Hints:
binds 4'-deoxy-4'-aminopyridoxal-5'-phosphate; Rossmann fold; alpha/beta; single chain; six-stranded mixed sheet
Amino acid sequence: MISGFVSQVVGQTPLIKVKSLSDLTGCEILGKAEYMNPGGSIKDRAALGIIEQAEKDGLLKPGFTIIEGTAGNTGIGLATIAPQKGYRCVIVMPNNQAQEKYDTLNALGVELVTVPPVPFANENHFYHTAKRLASERPNSFWANQFENVANFKAHEATTGPEIWNQTEGRIDAFVSAVGTGGTMAGVSRYLKSKKPSVHVRLADPFGSGLYSYFKSGQMASTGSSITEGIGIMRVTANFKEAVIDEAVQVSDSDMISMLYHLAKNDGLLVGTSAALNLYAAYRYALENKNSGKVIVTMLCDSATRYQSKIFNPAFLNEKNLSPQPLN
Ligand code: PMP
């Protein structure tokens, strides 16, 4: 089949067996290669789902401008789909993200607005800035990936069923970090509807409040993380829909060790959230060593999207990170 639109090749990503981790644990650890989406990340699915729902609802028409606040990937997803549909994009991002994402958005021709990385309560936060810009500009549509449930519904309709079919229903556990919660909610709901025994595990970076929220009901965080696009300090409409059995925290040092391990041993170049996901999947596999359990996680984007940071010894030094053999 020849696809006439970028939007037609979002999803249907391969499910890759991570051989080194499967061999080390006696489980089957599988990564869904979301970096193979046209915009290079898992967020293409949410971007397409949000656009198509807004078109159906009459909120988005040719000539309109899509406005969104994002750590970058949702903006890239929107901007890859927008041109062929006749939309422009205004993308609002915090100014501390990997340079590669700004460069990509500029190449895609969006209007890029950067703001300081301030707490959510501050009105200059990228979320509030995007909302404000959308209210000021005529013929604009605020994608609002955090509260717009078209986000998780895209994962419930595509990511979940793909994982179910690719594992032929053999999946025992699903592990995922949370940014908006769209992936976690959509996939967990779908998998639990097919097989309630599937164990769902939230992998949270330091600096995020979700681990504490899951354990105690209190949104609280310690530390910080170099991961991008994951971790949050509030319960979003998308996250609310997630069905979660357990939560774990993963440090940046374990995440970066995994990232380098995967590059050297498996030829897998994954981004920071994917490395964090795989570290949590690996720990779950060690807890169930030699059980043969089938564990699925998301390879959200590629290492190349962060190479100016994670393959830069000066950056790693500054953050006190040095990749170690897996423990
Ligand atoms: N990983 C990366 C690299 C991301 O950009 C995002 C989205 N912000 C996520 C993971 C989390 O996905 P979700 O928004 O579906 O929770």
